[in-house]
Amino acid sequence: MFFKKALLAAVGLVLACGMGAVTAFAQEPQTQSQTAPSREGVSDKERIERREQRRQRLMQRLERRDDRGLMREGYRDRLSELNLTDDQRKQRQAIIERRLAGTKQQREELMRLREKRSAGTLTETDETRVQALRQEVKTAMQGVGEEMESVLTSEQRAKLEQLKAERKQRMELRLKERQERRRTKPTIL
Question: What global pTM score does this model have?
Answer without folding.
Answer: 0.48
